[in-house]
Amino acid sequence: MNDDAIAPVVAVMMILVVAVTLLSIWNAIYLPDLKQQAEVEHLKEVEEGFREIDSDISHMVSLNRSGIVKVSIPLGGGDIMLHQAKSGGTLALKEPYVQIKVYEQSDPTNPREAYILPIQYTPVSNFWVNQGYTWGTYLNVSKGSVTTPLEFGQMDDVEVGHYIRINTDSNPISIAVLNLTQGEPSSVSGNGIATIYMDGEPGPGLLLNNPVYIKVNMTPLSGKKINDSVYSKLNSYWFAEGEYHIMKDVLITRYNLTLSVR
To answer: Fewer CB in a 10 Å sphere around the end CB: N or C, the chain?
Structure first.
């Protein structure tokens, strides 16, 4: 057998073994770390987007002006130069619920209602952890089935007072509340960029003759915090948990904010 003919074959096989070994090390150790780091950066961008949503809604309510505000949210991430596969996600408007009812005692079947419409980001095929975000008057972060406030150490510290404003020094008493409605489309999935559209319009004031009843929905966690804000202003009219009977005329206005996802 000619040793000179075998040598190049052995050399090529050795090179292939080394290449396969290096590729295996890359796939097993370095690639997952790089993908995880890229996913961490993606989730930071999602969080920043939700913080911007919270801040923009707060400013729109405070300024009480008409306008449209847009916020972009990256649905997917985790892609790197040598591995372009991306995770995905879903950005959706969840089921709206009545947060506050205000009505005249003489007309309980015709309440003025204010709705809250949660916004939720859910990750799909994440390369790091299944970390999601939800807004519903304040920000929550979730990992699996565990959900906690994003910006507060505990629920007791959460503040949502800027979504309802009450002035008991005026005559009549003035109450301004945020009212969210669902536009279309209401959800989008994939790994591209989604955009939340927020279309705000101040509603007209409506005078309610006394006695006026207020009921706060205490079922959601946000309801308990909103009730704290209401109680701080209307404690002298407290009737039961989440319920107030006001023996004065009330001027109620709603800031109507229509949300859609595109």
So the answer is: N
Residue 228 confidence class, pLDDT cut points 50, 70, 90: very high
| Token representation of residue 104 | 């005249």
pLDDT tens column, 108-134: 999 999 999 999 999 998 877 789 999
Buried b (16+ CB within 10 A) or exposed e, 118-144: bbbbbbeebbbeebbbbbbbbbbbbee
Q: Token digits for 127?
A: 């390369």
8 Å CB contact between 249 and 210: yes
Listed by start position, the domains of the chain span 3-261
Strand intervals (E) in the chain = 67-74, 88-93, 97-104, 112-116, 119-124, 131-135, 139-143, 146-149, 164-167, 173-182, 187-190, 193-202, 206-208, 212-216, 238-240, 243-246, 250-261
In degrees rounded to 5, what are phi and psi of residue 115? -105, 150
Three-state DSSP class for residue 32:
helix
Please tell me the total number of residues recorded for the chain in this structure: 262
Please measure the distance between the N-terminal and C-terminal CA atoms of the chain and give it in whole angstroms: 71
The reported pTM is 0.85
Of residues 116, 139, 119, the one with CA closest to residue 218: 116
